[in-house]
Amino acid sequence: MKKVSTAISVFCLLAAVFAPPFVTVHADEIPQAVDTSSLPVVGTEWRGENPYRGMEAAAKVGESAFAQNCARCHGIQAKSGGIAPDLRFLDRDCDDLKSIEKKKACFIETDKYFLLSIRGGKVRNGAVYMPPFEGFFTQEAMWAIKTYLEAMKGTD
Question: 2-152 belongs to which CATH class?
């Protein structure tokens, strides 16, 4: 019995010594830089609509940025495993609209919601569900990620 007690004590000691770096990695993550040098400059004034919509080069930049910064919560290739929303469906309601004007307005509204979310993060009752990325990502990086998500829409 003493051997079992000693083994458990040794295990707990090793877990206490070696686990903290693994346990705290996510909380201490610093957003990874996003290279947007291949994209047209959007400027300093925040856009209300995705200026890169349908641009393949922006989707490539967004894919890399998403994998490095967003996938740990929103899933690889934006396929959520349940921790955070599946962003492939972010603007799915827009696709069903028959009116071209309403569809365009819906996409713009979703763009604004996305930008508000990524810039300010998501906090409820003092709990941070998503950190704010304003100050870490440029507007170009944020729109590149949105372009990537639009390209992933409807993929399985």
Answer: mainly alpha
